[in-house]
């Protein structure tokens, strides 16, 4: 995020939108683009956001109380194809440290006692607002041929 912000802050008029950043970086970096700069940082940020949104969607859809099930689903959809063998194994091991759904929902409510249905409704509202934005960023990357498929 800091890399994207730094590019924006360097010239807010020129880099008014994310698309402006990609277009200017494409022109500036030539054949190194999109493997550099804010374009690359935004690519990984959008993938991480997709992981979080798929995780929240899975939780709000009423799937099991074990968040590792939701996290594994989100990882399969959003990140696995971009990760090498070692990072995949590290992730698979780390999911066993995740809390239960009820504990996560309580944390999202900052410790307040709130009915699960109310928390789930807030997640649905959040997803309905954020998913169209993320979809637009994915569409922009596809349209500009900026998506990379290499494994990290």
TrEMBL record:
Domain of life: Eukaryota
One Gene Ontology cellular component annotation held by this UniProt entry: membrane
Principal localisation: cytoplasm
Pfam families, per the entry: GLTP
Entry annotated with the keyword 4Fe-4S: no
Keywords: Cytoplasm, Lipid transport, Repeat, Transport
Single annotated GO MF: ceramide 1-phosphate transfer activity
The keyword Hydrolase belongs to this UniProt entry's keyword annotation: no
Subcellular location field: Cytoplasm
Residues covered by the Glycolipid transfer protein domain: 2-109
Reported function: Accelerates the intermembrane transfer of various glycolipids. Catalyzes the transfer of various glycosphingolipids between membranes but does not catalyze the transfer of phospholipids. May be involved in the intracellular translocation of glucosylceramides.
Annotated family: Belongs to the GLTP family.
Protein name: GLTP protein
Organism: Penelope pileata
